[in-house]
Design a protein that fits this description.
Number of strands: 11
Largest sheet: 5 strands, antiparallel
Strand order of the largest sheet: 1-2-9-6-7
Distance between the termini: 23 Å
Helix content: under 10%
Shape: globular
Number of domains: 1
Structural class: mainly beta
């Protein structure tokens, strides 16, 4: 079951083997009231404990495929429906220390029915999340 927060408590974990962490992942639910194509996402900014990880450097893992920023523009046939999650993959050598972290996200989305001057729309969320290992 998905949580109310866009940032899900499950799926927040380090990437890579212990002792050789390459970064971390963060799981997000659809922040929109309906599904959308991945090509309408301009990226996801992540801030953990005040350290900013810009959208241009983060990747999205969805349905077994990894999308970089440039790949999202071409994902016109890939839909992110309500009820499914994506994982945002963030490079950070050493990962994050185990424990509670203050996590913030901004999902930059375009809506096909909004005028261009109002795009992209930032969908913001923040919460505490815990990395166990």
């Amino acid at each position: 079951m998905l949580e109310r927060s866009t940032i899900q408590s499950s799926g927040f974990s380090n990437l890579g083997p212990e002792g050789a962490r390459t970064g971390f992942r963060l799981r997000l639910r659809q922040p929109n009231y309906r599904g959308m194509r991945l090509s309408l996402i301009e990226g996801v900014d992540v801030v953990v404990d005040g350290e900013r990880f810009p959208a241009a450097d983060n990747r999205i893992l969805f349905q077994g495929r990894t999308f970089g920023r440039a790949d999202l523009d071409d994902a016109t046939e890939t839909r992110w429906p309500v009820g499914e999650t994506i994982d945002v993959l963030v490079d950070r050598p050493g990962g994050l220390v185990p424990g509670v972290h203050q996590v913030e996200t901004i999902v930059w989305m375009r809506h096909p029915y909004f005028p261009p001057q109002f795009q992209p729309v930032p969908m913001r969320d923040a919460r505490e999340a815990t990395i166990v290992l």
